[in-house]
Every structure is written in structure tokens, then in C-alpha cells.
Amino acid sequence: MIAPLEHRRRTEPSGLQREHMLAIEEEENRIPRRLQNAIEAQPAIAVATAMAVGVVIGWLVKRKNW
Hints:
transmembrane helix, 2 helices, mainly alpha, single chain, membrane
């Protein structure tokens, strides 16, 4: 039987669990942080790349036979 929510004991994660959770968060944020740093360092290249990708996608959509 499951205890009602108000009677459940709230447990804090142990030190090892906390370190593991932080390591997972660090791994998940690594690639977005690298992209953000690259965009901040060279915004003109980021804008040019976005425009080029938009043109290519637009060209592909225009050429598609619906």
C-alpha cells in the first residue's frame, strides 16, 4: 500500500546522488554552452550561417512538388 502524499517522508539526495545529478546537468549543458560561446564570439558568422540555412531550406521547399 502506498502512503498518502502528506505522510511520505521527504528524503534529500545523498552526496553521491547530488554529485551524479550535477554531472548529468553539466553534460546536458555542455553543447548548448559551446554554441552560445561561439555565437557570442562571432555573431556575424552566426547570422550569415542562419541566413544561408534559411535560403537553402526555402529553395528546397520551393523545389518540392506538392
